[in-house]
Amino acid sequence: MKLAAIALRNLARNRRRTVLSLLVIASGTAALLLTAGFVRFSFSGLEDAIIRGGLGHFEVVLEDEAALASTQRAALPRLADWQAVRAAIEAAPQVRAAGGVIQLSGVVGLGDRSSAFLALAVEPDRERRMGFDVKLREGEDLPGEPPAEGADRVLLGLGLARAIGARAGDAVTLMVVTPDGMLNAVDMTVCGLFTSGLQDLDLRLIKLHLASAQRLAETEGVSSIVVGLADGAALEPARAELLRRLSGRNPRLALLDWRSRAPFYGQVRSLYSGIFWFLGGIVFLLVCLSNSSALLMAMMERVREIGTLLALGTSRAGIGALFLSEALWLGLLGALAGDALGLALARVLNALRIEMPPPPGAVSGFPLQLELAPQDFLLATCLMLAVMAVSALLPILRATRLRIVDALGHV
Length: 411
Prior knowledge:
Order of helices and strands: HHEHEEHEEHEEHEHEHEHHHHEEHHH
Strand order of the largest sheet: 2-3-8-5-7-6
Number of helices: 15
Distance between the termini: 32 Å
Number of strands: 12
Shape: elongated
Number of domains: 2
Largest sheet: 6 strands, mixed, barrel
Helix content: 40-55%
Oligomer: single chain
């Protein structure tokens, strides 16, 4: 305790240098916090966009199709007893809703124009219960109730609608190959235009009601069942409960979580984590070099003082502990100031609601928001303490190697 008090008083001897050191540490801490806040927001935003964009938390498929990509399952609506499976899933307390899905591919035409499409057939009422987002740009969403025969409606992706010249209210013809290998076509009314958020996908994507897709594909089955969990429900306990409810069914079913169906999430997470640690390494190096120089200068100004302390019987370990305490005080005070600065800057940036430009291939931008967690402040403070401990190594080494005679005679 006495050593810490002496170290704190020593920092006040050259206030200008101490303030400059604190500013460097505070700036580095704030930079780390802002970067961590952006990365954390990007992770949570991407996760929410994936789940609420239509993937849900889980997907139930036939076990022999689990290894297939979703596009390979497009012509295989083989899950026949899906309504009973859906009822069993929705009986789980963690589940908000579950809905059958059919994925189709074919050709959509309007007049003399046509284009290939990828269709996602869903149960709109259950999608709304799961909180899924439909980014409408024109018209209205699909009705919740199954449409009557002859009243089928469809949502077209923006790019696909432009390719065939379709607008809300137009009648288009969808043609697919049924599971029996026959061609079937159904006329549908375009109820609206929407975007998936990705330009390339909008060139092919359409959405329609599950009942319309079953008429089009001439099937009563579905490709899979998408499951949405209630708010706050943990993924792993929900997985265990659903597997228990699905066990023993014939044919056997598999449960795929959203991470396994969106491998690009892991790639983006690895990229952002690499960027964060790279920037953290640069901040570590800059703060370390800057403060090591300041601490070394402080040591050189106190050579005679160190010689006097050694002559009075102070151990070399005690001298090293004194300089280490000064460095740690700098790290702690600078980090606390940086925490306050980072929090203030994060709140200002969030309040400004800055709109970021669209990422490559995306349709629209996204708001710049920073999401800070309590552990971020703790980690930033611990990192700065570690930086200052490393910065103090050279001054400590120089101070503890001084000879008493040389130190006392130092000018």
